[in-house]
Structure formats: C-alpha cells, structure tokens
Specification:
Layout lengths: L2 H24 L29 E5 L8 H16 L4 E3 L6 H7 L8 H11 L3 E11 L2 E10 L5 E8 L8 H15 L34 H39 L13 H35 L11 H7 L2 E8 L2 E8 L2
Parallel strand pairs: 1-2, 1-3
Antiparallel strand pairs: 3-4, 4-5, 6-7
Keywords: Membrane, Signal, Transmembrane, Transmembrane helix
Length: 346
C-alpha cells in the first residue's frame, strides 16, 4: 500500500463517520414519513339496462327410466317446454334419448366424465342436460337430472313427486320442472301462461214483434150457420111468393062470389072457380111453411154464428164455453105457420 494512502486512512474513516452525523443534523425534525398506499382502480360501470343479454343454449336429451316410462316422457317434454319459455336460454336441437347416445358412443349407462366430454364434442355443445326418472315408492318417482357444462363441474338436481303427474301440461308437473331448472341453470322460468276460458258471448235477443194469432180457418159452426141463413132466406122468399099468389087467388074468388047468380058453393057441384079456391088454400099453406121455415132457419143460423168462439183467444175460459153450449134452438113448422123456440139454461 502507498504510505501516503495509509497515512490518510484515519482521516477518511473520521470523515465517513462525520458525514452521516452532519446529514442527520441538517434534516429538520417533523412527523415520520410513510410509504404511499397503492392506487385502487375504480370498478367498471354496470352494464346499461338496454344492453344485449347473452342467450345460452342447453340441449335436453330424452331421459331414461327402468320402471316409469309415462313419467319420464312427460318430464322430458315439460323440461324442454319450460326451457323455451326462458328469455336467457334457448333449447338446443338435440332430441335424442340418453340411451341411444350412450350406445352410439359406447359409453356406460351412466356416462362418466370422458363420455360426457365426448357427448359435448359430438353435439358441438357447451351444455347438455340428461337424467333418469325411476320409481322410488309405490306412488312416487324421483327425477335425477344432470347438467354437463364444458370446462366446469357437473351439476346434479333431484326431485321426488307423485307418479300421477303424467301430463306435460299439468301445472304441478311444470312446477317440478321449474324447480329442477332453477337448481341447474340458476334461474326459474317465468310462470306459465294459463289460457283463460272465453266467456260465452250472450247475444241480445231482438224484441220480436207480437205475431198475429194463427188463423184457424172457417169453423164448421160458421159454415152451418151461414148455410142455414141462406136456406132460411130462400124459404122466406118462397113463402112470400106463395103469400102474394094467395092474395091474388083470394081476390079472384071474392070477385067470383060477388058475381050475379054465383052459387054459394062452387065445389058442389064442382065448377072452375073451385080450382081457384083449392089453389088459394095451397098457396096459403105454402106461405106459412116457407115463412115459418125461413124464420126458423135464419134464427138457427144467427144463433150458431153468435155462439161460434173459434176465432177468439185459445185460452178461453171454460165458463164461457159452457155458457155457449147452454143455448138450445127448437124450430117447429105446422100447417098453419112456423115458429122458432130459443131456450137458454141459466
């Protein structure tokens, strides 16, 4: 070592010790300084309400069953229907049954991880739903539903329900499917739309105008009544003619009796004036018969017309009918005249 550096070494040592002391003495006293905290980036703003929602696809295979064929078919149909009703999910086009898929891929009846991966690759799908429905009690079945998700763990959901639910449109079976989908997909389908029965349209009936009562035609009583009136009129005219002839013959007989030298009896011995006397008697008789019969026939016809109730209302009281039947007409004709007796029972 250089003797000059060796002689300066103690001074350098002293200088190195003094410089830190001097620096510390020149530093002003104050609060202790801390290291600044790391900056926190603000969270990204939430997506706008009008932004497009991602629609995901899930394929629902036909479920398998050993002892509940009716129930497995109904549940498969209901699950597919309820997936279609969800706004954020769409039903895939694969409708093959699980048993056919496992047979085609040579997988066990219960697919393992490698088999489900092959199913997804075969269908080019990211989500496949499959499962089984088996009877667990005399009146109940249990659905075991699996959801395979690409790159994620498989989700399993179970539901036990009565074996009477075999209709895909049954609201109770739809509720079972909704619970399964909520467990597997994380959301529940919207309530099914129940079609309300149409209310019957009641048409207001138009006020019908009162119809005239049906025509009953001409009754037999009317026909007989007018016929009797016609016959009576004819008989009356005949009687009147005979009465005129009688008056004429009577006038001739009086003239013959008043003639000078006329006998007291023209018929003993018989003379031509006797024929006039006999014709006058015959005309007198025919006059009485014609007028009497005419009056009787006309009276009977009028009574029949007055008592004819066929044109009245059908709901005629029985009292009026019985009163009409109490009329009795009794015509009588004699050698010296005719008469009509009208009897009525009170």
């Amino acid at each position: 070592m250089n003797p000059t550096r060796r002689s300066l070494a103690p001074f350098a040592l002293l200088l190195g010790l003094a410089l830190p002391a001097t620096a510390s003495a020149q530093t002003p006293l104050g609060p202790a300084t801390t290291q600044p905290a790391p900056q926190v980036r603000p969270a990204p703003p939430p997506a706008a309400s009008g932004s497009a929602t991602t629609v995901r696809t899930v394929h629902v295979l036909g479920f398998d069953s050993d002892n509940a064929d009716d129930q497995v078919e109904a549940l498969t149909t209901t699950l597919r229907t309820r997936v279609r009703a969800m706004s954020n999910w769409t039903l895939g086009g694969v409708s093959t049954s699980l048993s056919m898929v496992t047979a085609a891929l040579k997988c066990p009846q219960r697919p393992d991880t490698a088999c489900t991966q092959r199913m997804g690759d075969e269908f080019k799908a990211d989500r496949v739903m499959y499962g089984w429905v088996n009877r667990t009690s005399p009146r109940e079945v249990t659905a075991e539903v699996h959801l395979w998700v690409r790159g994620d763990r498989e989700i399993v959901a179970n539901e036990t329900y009565p074996d009477t639910l075999t209709d895909a449109k049954d609201p109770k079976l739809q509720a079972v499917a909704d619970r399964l989908l909520e467990k597997l997909l994380g959301e529940r389908p919207p309530p099914p739309v129940v079609a309300r029965p149409k209310e019957p349209v009641i048409e207001k009936k138009k006020e019908e105008e009162p119809k005239p009562p049906p025509s009953r035609g001409v009754s037999a009583r009317t026909v007989i009544g007018w016929s009797l009136i016609g016959l009576g009129a004819g008989a009356g005219i005949f009687g009147a003619v005979e009465g005129v002839r009688f008056l004429s013959l009577q006038s001739d007989n009086k003239d013959d009796a008043a003639a000078p030298g006329a006998p007291a009896d023209f018929c003993n011995p018989r003379r031509p004036q006797c024929d006039k006397l006999e014709d006058a008697k015959t005309a007198r008789t025919l006059e009485f018969i014609g007028i009497g019969a005419g009056v009787a026939l006309v009276g009977t016809g009028v009574i029949l017309l007055l008592t004819d109730h066929s044109k009245e209302a059908p709901r005629e009281s029985a009292a009026s009918k019985s009163s009409a039947r109490k009329w009795q007409v009794a015509p009588s004709v004699g050698p010296r005249g005719g008469s009509v007796n009208l009897n009525m029972a009170w």
